Task: structure prediction
Amino acid sequence: MSLLEDLVWLISVPSEIGEEEALCSAVAKRLSPRWGADSILRIGNALVVGHPDHRPLITLYGHLDTVPAQGNLKPEIRGERLHGLGASDMKSGLAVMLGLLEDDAVRSGPFNVAFIFYDKEEGAAAENGLEDVLDAVPWLADSGLAFVLEPTDLQLELGCQGAMNATLTFSGKSAHSARPWLGENAVTKAGQWLGEMHLREPTVVEVADLEFRELFSVTMAQGGIARNVIPGSFTVNLNYRFPPSLTLDEAETRLRQVASAADVIDVIDRAPAAPVPDGNELLERFIAVSGAGRTGKQAWTDVARLSARGIPAVNYGPGETAQAHQQDESVAIANLEVAFDALRAFLSA
Result:
């Protein structure tokens, strides 16, 4: 099958988050005749294709799941683009992985290449299926370089931002709205701080000659119990995206400084940033072979999860970042060949 045919096939098997079983089984069935049962390990609804040998190990990662459908389950070719759920995020990356899996030059090349298809990436970080895979297959930690085939517009995206969420509570005192002086309005108490957040500009931070943007965003708000009651409490969610130059503890300290106007700050989740691989000869070789441009990853991806386990990892894929999670999601068909050719040249030369 061609890369395009593979992508059409992958989109045709729905795999919304939590419903990856059918696609996982279909991929395993597709690969079994060529790879054999001994080289395909299933862990829940995730697959590891490959096994250790004497060659240096390179690993490729792709998540099977998509976000929920928005009337875009059916793949459709329109001109030079393929539309459908997951076309960019990230079944185009999976199609490239399948093409490499079935390429004899890659299998017989200088590297031992392992392919990891995993589930539940699009949901809560704590439920991500990649953790179970890494726990179950310890030899994956020997990888000299890992590629996460998330959408990157064919750019090599190095490192990634960390992410943190905190619930901020502004405390007031309830009162009858006819006599507001008897209470304190928690919503308007937060007004000055909210105004400052509205005007706050992203801060550009340079790490290893790459730009990352530090961002604070208010993403949710809740306050008040009735139309005629002065609200005694007002809560907001503050989402913080921080650069690889900060550790988790340093990032939390930074968040608490920015949110110091709140009465209570409750950090509810935090995920570390991923460092930019420095001095990795395999990465330098891929840059030379592919000619891909370099940029910092302005989002959180599983390169952070891999990096935390000592695996140098980068983002590189055929999907388009602006298309991810869109109702009319699509990908340029030509991107498939470009990504495949770059990875094949690196893995087989």
